[in-house]
Amino acid sequence: MMPRHQETSKTLIDILSRANRLYPDRTALVFGSKEISYAEVLRESCRVASAVRAAGAKQGERVAILLDNSPEFVYAYFGILLNRSIIVPVNHMFKREEIKYILDDSGATGLITSAAYASISDELKAMTENLTFVLQVSGAKEQPVDTSFARFVGAPERSAEPAVFLYTSGTTGHPKAAVLTHGNLLSNIHSSSQCIRVTPKDTFISFLPLFHSFAATVCLLMPLETGARTVIMKSPRPIKKLLRTIRRNRVSIFVGIPSIYGILKDMKLPAFLPPFLLRFLNPIRLAISGAAALPVEVFLGFEKKFRLPLLEGYGLTEASPVVSLNPLKGPRKPGSIGLPIPDVKVKIINDRGQTLGPEQEGELCVRGPNVMLGYYKKEEDNRQTLKEGWLLTGDMAKIDRDGYIVIMGRKKDMVNVRGLNVYPREIEEVLYRDPRIREAAVIGVPDPHKGEVPKGYVVLKTTGSVTEHDIIVYLRQHLADYKIPRKVEIRAELPKNSAGKILKRVLIEENAAASHKTG
């Protein structure tokens, strides 16, 4: 929890201006062998702000960031805010047309990038209507330091100003920009920090992409707001490098996604390393899983092997993003996404909008200061998603009698087999319990007799060790017949987004294309 003497921020820039006043020499970022102080983060962010202003960006205009995980991403992030412009983080794995869509849709007037993306950024400037400048972060170093930029902060009304346009991955069609304010993000930081009891002594690790909502809030903004430090990595692979970085920097809070925890769970440890010695050598005090559903088998296996709490949470971009978390002190329920964080309320509704009771399944709704202003230029989507102050998540869930939330699956993912509801996640959990399977995904596909049936996709731990028939026989031992997939396709890998979440949309599109071709 934040020290009592430390005032809370009113805008995101207060994070740096306050830190520069109270502990300028404290390490804020670690990147490789380089340690960067809070004072240096503010100084370099002011350089970027000067460059952005000199390029012509005005208050309220959108400026995009196309950068890998690096200190420069942080300087660009805060530099844009110092100019009172709005950040548009861009997935650096996107292709040219995908980036062009984000720039056009947001109306971004500027793009901050690096030499690594020089060729594509020149093309984008020629292709887009609103983009007036492309700034390479190396060029910002030529700007003088003007810390007067930091004076913009402090006014409470400015917490309602938009800070970031975060584009959702979207289940269909193009992504939409969730408009998040300074107040949205700060409320989420403060509530989440209380749940995991962050102190200035903590060290986070940030290998998840910083353009993603989960990493930006939990791995970057949260440690900086609490006076902690964060270790930035471009990638968690190879795993041996990740483990060395954790030990060398005494990382205390590990933030990851289910696929990383699956790898760590299955990782072979030296036979001479007894459990008590492993715990002694491991500096991590807790691990957090987000961005996708954590299979129960992975949760149980990880906690048993490493003997430290793994907290599964839930969030969505539209909620800044954290909504709930299994408690650090108290029961952690496998298969549950935990309890709502402070200041956030949840409820379950049916198709008629009526609130349901404990153990009843329906759509999960969220309310709190972390909920977005709305989608940019998407009035109809806003009417469907934001109702009477509640954010309709599109996730089917139930709340048990202890208040813990259990996600059943996406509302649109639910498979209707002759009028019976089948949740893909239930089948996936059974597949993950099979020790031969590394990854699993289930979608609904059309069927001439049953309307819809499930179809499974799996990645095996050992190639060629099991057949489709073996998997279906296994499933029949654990599930009702109507829940059994008509087909299980064994693949070398499954399509994923930048956060490691399996893209069922791609599987659905591939299946539809294959059906059309054979039909």
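The above is record 1. Record 2 follows with the same two-line structure.
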Amino acid sequence: MADKLAELRSLRQQALAGGGEARVAAQHKRGALTARERLALLLDEGSFEELGSLARHRNTDFDMAERRFPGDGVVTGFGKVDGRRVAVYAQDFTVLGGSFSEVQANKIARVQDLALQAGVPVIGLNDSGGARVQEGVGSLAAYGEVFYRNVQASGVIPQISLIMGPCAGGAVYSPALTDLVVMVDGTANMFLTGPEIIKQVTGEDVTSDELGGAWVHNQRSGVAHFEAANDQEAIALAKRLLGHLPQNNAEDAPQLVTSDPPDRADAALDAIIPQDDDQPYDMREVLDRICDAGSVLQVGEHYAGNAITAFARLDGYSVGVVANQPSVLSGVLDIDSSDKISRFVRLCDAYNLPVVTLVDCPGYLPGVQQEYCGVIRHGAKVIYAYAQATVPKLCVVTRKAIGGSYVALSSKQMGNDIAFAWPTAQIAVMGPEGAARLLNRKAAAASGDPAKSDQEFIARYREKFLNPYQAVDLGQIDEVIEPSQTRWRLIKSLELLRTKVQANPAKKHGLFPV
């Protein structure tokens, strides 16, 4: 028995050592932590229960028989974050470059299955050189096992991916299938084909960071939702995100105790909208003044800046916020912002987070390129997401709600529960200049002074339509409120809607305009 125990303890020590001191030192030299160091930061002390620590590959080809490490390059198991259960896996770059193998897939799939059965979130810490080439098609099939489980868990349990090193080829699809992606600047990259292959095939010269670094996927592609300066910041972000999400789709997100009074009024909001309709203002300031102090966490902050999507809290309750950003492209809807908004609304709906929408949008972005690239199809995603969502939906029109953007962004027709407007709201089919060109053309031509005629028409149009009161008459807006009272009105409305029950028609699934 003593021999058997000694063998077991030796294997466990090997598993804890990863790829050895030299490889751990190399990991630290590139500014990265090891898999176990990352998990120690993420999980509550003493809560980690590891599974599969002794599993090793069985491949004997290409000198692999001599390169068998307990754990096989990934650490998997369960633990707690702030007292709440989570499933975790962390790829270990110090072991065979974290290369993805059949054993890795078995271990990750095992915790995915258990997480789905137990109803707890999955957090994946990705740091891998790619598929283990020595295993051939077995390594490719291994990816498929994980992808399938990503899809089955989607919308049932939260899935968060932290990209903390290389993530290339087929490996990129697993994070892309999860709910939220965090990338570490300087060490993380994601791409389907690397710089060498691209240069060979297309002749383009590009570095790994230029091709798929954290900034690229946060600003240009939208694949990632957060950029972190280092491993520690990425892990802190993951923990903060978990605080906004429930354990699963049958539960509610945790409420936090807040010292911010629910009936707090903010007089600065009464003067935040500029006198000139064409002058921008920062919607982020509006959100900070309405939501619990310090609670706003933007999702996809650097992508499609004309739209803001964020987690926040109102009286300690987690909510999803969608808002137009007038300081970027006047807050118009375009292809990228439509994708950003629709995905976020669906994320909130999946995990029972009320959606609060702040509208200041002059409409959809016109242009040949937008039409050619499918702004109709992408814009339809916003309509679909809001109409399908069954969570409480609140809307505040702060200024412009023009044309199709008014309908799409949480209008009554999209199933909105309570709609507010500020006195500065302008709800109309089109802007006054466009209306003049359409409706006053003949009168202007016959007047002898077209410019004066248009000015008079625009003045009448503004008085009649560019206010919230016609929408109130028609029941499209429930109440015109003082901006300073917005926080209190939203909190009271959410209190009413907390027990909302709504179900969509029974069906296998709809056809989302992807």
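The mean pLDDT is 89.
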